[in-house]
Amino acid sequence: MKFPHWLTSPQFEQEQKTHKARNLFNTLVTVFAVEIVCTAIIPVIFPENLLVWIFIGSAIILTIGCYFLLQARRLRLASILFCVLLGAIPFIIALNNNGVDSFAIQIYTIVVLIAGLLLGARSSLLIAILGSLGLVGLYFIESTGIIFIPPTSLPIFLKISTPSFVFILSAILLMNAIRNMETILQKARENITTLYEANLELQNVRTTLEQEVENRTIQLNATNAIGQTINRILDLDQLGIQVVKKLTTLFDFDFAAIYMVDSNNQWATLRYTHPEIPSPQGDSHRFNIGMTIELETALRSLKPYIEYLEIPQKAENAKLLKIPEARFAITLPLYAGGKAIGAINVQSTQKIAFSQQGVETLQNVANQIAIAFENARLFQESQTQLSEINRLNQLYLQTTWRAYLAKETSAFQFSAGELQETAQPDFAALEIAQQNRKIHVTQENGDSFLVAPILFQDQVLGAIKLKATGRAWTTDEFALIEATLNQTALSLENARLILETQSRAEQEKILSDISSQMRETLDLETILQTAVYEMQKALQLSEIEVHLISETAETRE
After folding, report:
1. Tens digits of per-residue pLDDT, 45-70?
2. Residue 366: which residues within 8 A CB-CB, separation 6 or more?
3. Which helix (H) or strand (E) holds 418?
4. Which one, of 57, 170, 54, lies nearest residue 107 by Cα?
């Protein structure tokens, strides 16, 4: 049954205030009911006592006033006013009837209980102290006779009803106090349960956070280990093998594969995979990227593509290589040099709950791997270009030195303090130097022969042959000979370059002179004569013929 709001105690945001408001409301209702009963029986007991009517009327006004204060949500003011005025009433009654022996003094016990219920233990103690002081003052007034207190013989009804009222109201107040205490204890038990559940939740959160920190630490250590490994490898094939190996050993993956894409991002090729699970079509397995949602999504969005597989996919129904019983897969794009160069696909037979942070860590690993692949590719290209440059340089050196030595093959011999040019070089020593390309020592009839090549950029320019009797060559001597020959090779190359430069300068000078002379005239015959004469003189030719094509001959052809 729902009562109107003015027949119920008001509700407050604080639960404690709501309990106190309910206690005050119940007390006011009980006191008001007693007051109504007293109003009904006063004409019978005190038919001509005006003071009793004033007392009952004042009590009713006090009760109604406190009720309106309560409904106005002035809880503390209503409680204090009710306790103070209700405590003054018994002493007023005692001053008019029987003094200290008055039953009204017992009623003050209810005031103390009400104060404790409404205002708390401290206020109840204060009311009790004030009541004790009031009782002492009442006794003093009665004993000194300052105010005459008439003894009155109360009717038997009041002698019975007054203590009964005190007992009943005390029981009601005690019942409210116990109920409030039970409510508080129940709330405390609920709070304890809530705290226990919150503690369990905190423990679970702590365990989860510790596990996440541990997993994060493992992932970071694995990332660091992969980074240290791939940064030392510049061979593409070795790099791919090590990446697949590290992904399956350092992370919770059972399979890893690396797909490389062409420059147009249209075709993908399976390059590296787990060694125990080869590709169904070999390492050259090639397919269109648009036929695989994993690669297409990862490469187009440049974001990881995660799969939770409830049913294993058969190999013939999937372009990407799948392992049996795969339950989790993630495809990570490889992005380097401003473009996608491939993707990594890793799979596990267990469902791995990767957090957003874990996925970002894997993508960071993939970015490092992509940079390592790009660096390895650039290194191989630079090595190829360097090898080609070295090959062309050696070919150029071979061509130029062969052309230079074809004119005149020189050989020199130093003996007995004299340097002499020999008619023919030691072809055996040259062949030994060409074949061995390092110092070669032989012993013959007590003599020691040392043949060392003259090397410039891995090209043998010549050889030196040393002869000594009864001598063992030392390591320091070998180093000295090699250093000397290196400087010799450099000097020979510099000399050849100087000669070549001089030769080109002479040729340029001859061409310039011929051009200058030919520009001095516009006569055709003079130009041809000048050209023939200068060419014969420069090239030391015995005869030169110049033929011009006539218009008739050109038409005939």
Report:
1. 666 667 778 778 888 888 888 888 88
2. 332, 333, 334, 335, 344
3. strand 418-421
4. 170
How many angstroms separate the CA atoms of 201 and 23, rounded?
A: 37
The 3-state DSSP class for residue 555 equals helix
Compute the distance between CA of residue 483 and CA of residue 486 in angstroms, rounded to an integer.
5
Six token digits for residue 373: 């692949």
Question: Can you tell me the distance from the alpha carbon of 360 to that of 304, in angstroms, rounded to the nearest whole number?
Answer: 9
State how far the Cα of 345 lies from the Cα of 248, in Å rounded to an integer: 11
CA–CA dist 434, 70 (Å, integer): 119
> Over the range 370-391, which residues count as b (16 or more CB within 10 Å of their CB) and which as e?
bbbbbbbbeeeeeeeeeeeeee
> Does position 157 have pLDDT exceeding 70, yes or no?
no
Is this structure's pTM higher than 0.90? no
**Local structure of residue 473 (DSSP, 8 states):** -
Query: How many residues would you count in the chain?
Result: 557
Q: With b meaning 16 or more CB within 10 Å and e meaning fewer, what string describes 412-421?
A: eeeeeeeeee
Closest C-alpha to 269, from 376, 342, 330: 342
Is residue 490 within 8 A of residue 457, CB to CB? The reply is no
Residue 317, pLDDT > 60, answer no
Q: Is-contact 323 354, C-beta < 8 A?
A: no
- Residue 460 to residues 96, 398, 454, 457: CA-CA distances in angstroms? 143, 9, 6, 8
The answer to whether the beta carbons of residues 111 and 83 sit under 8 Å apart is yes
Using alpha carbons only, give the angle 301, 305, 307 rounded to the nearest 5 degrees.
Answer: 155
Tell me which DSSP letter residue 100 carries: G
Cα 549–555–557 angle (5° rounding)? 80
Q: What is the CA radius of gyration of the chain?
A: 59
> What proportion of the chain, given as a percentage, has pLDDT over 70?
88
Both tokens of 458, joined, read 């891995």
